[in-house]
Amino acid sequence: MTENLKKYMAKSFLYEEIQKVVAPIKNYAIVKGDPLSLLVFGQCGKRLMSDVDILVNYSDVVNVERSLYQNGFVKTINSRESELFMKSFSHQSVPFVKENLMFGNIYIDINFDVFWGEYEGTKIDITSYLENSMEINLYGATLKTLTPLYLFVHFALHTYKDMNSIYLLSQRCTDWCVALEELYNLLMRNMSEISIDKLVALCEIYSIKPFIYYVLYHVNYLYEDKTICNYLKALYCENGEYLIGCFGLNDIERKKWPCNLSQRIKQNDKFCIIEEVLTENDLNKINRNKIYMGGKLNDE
User: Fold this and answer.
1) Closest CA to 64 of 27, 34, 35, 91
2) 3-class state of residue 264 by DSSP
3) pLDDT 10s digits, 193-219
4) Is 143 left (phi over 0), alpha (psi -120 to 50) or beta?
5) Which residues contact 80 (CB under 8 A, 6 or more apart)?
6) Could you give the C-alpha distances from 141 to 11, 34, 299, in angstroms and in order?
7) C-alpha angle 94/251/257, rounded to 5°?
């Protein structure tokens, strides 16, 4: 058996399992992972992934968890405190896993928000957000993901979170260029569906202009593309411009980067850059997240 065939069989098994899990769920979307790979690169399997992310409305979390249990999955963290912490202060519940000796363990994250736990603005109604879904074929399984415009917004917000979370910055070395390249390709390959007018209109509906401007500013820093410049002109706002020089996910923890953009793009270990300006409250938050989230990073 060739290596490619082994990989295909493993992915086919994976999505057969996912198909069983989501069968009772009407409104859901598989996000990031292979659906994103399909829209970014034109084929599955081009993105590294350690788990499968399922976006559902909060009211459906219990139904997904029940379906996971029925299909042989168990929680990766058996702590009531961790479960309450994650549901209250993050965008997801405790991850699930199903052990498999032949194809490797299957990890599933249940996401119920497109924002981060620290978000202070008006939340997006996930039920209506999921109405903008489409069916795709993943290794023989028919599953739902978001349409290109909504997947772009979801991934852009996810990228903003990764670039600004003091907890995530403290836990791993991160090459921002990978996500920024994927955002660039996602936009350029699906420009008719992620047009300037459509993106600006959606940003205004959800009041997310500053965050989308932020990530596209960083995309343009890498590519210096006239097309991206046109998006930036349409999305420009003072709050977005202000965020460029900052890190942190809310007003309380937000601080100025102690170095320029070129330095922080090049430096993968970004925690060594910001550690000197963190407060005692920031460090306490990092330690609290370590305890209750069990080192879960949810980064793929």
Assistant:
1) 27
2) helix
3) 999 999 999 999 999 999 999 999 999
4) beta
5) none
6) 10, 12, 24
7) 95
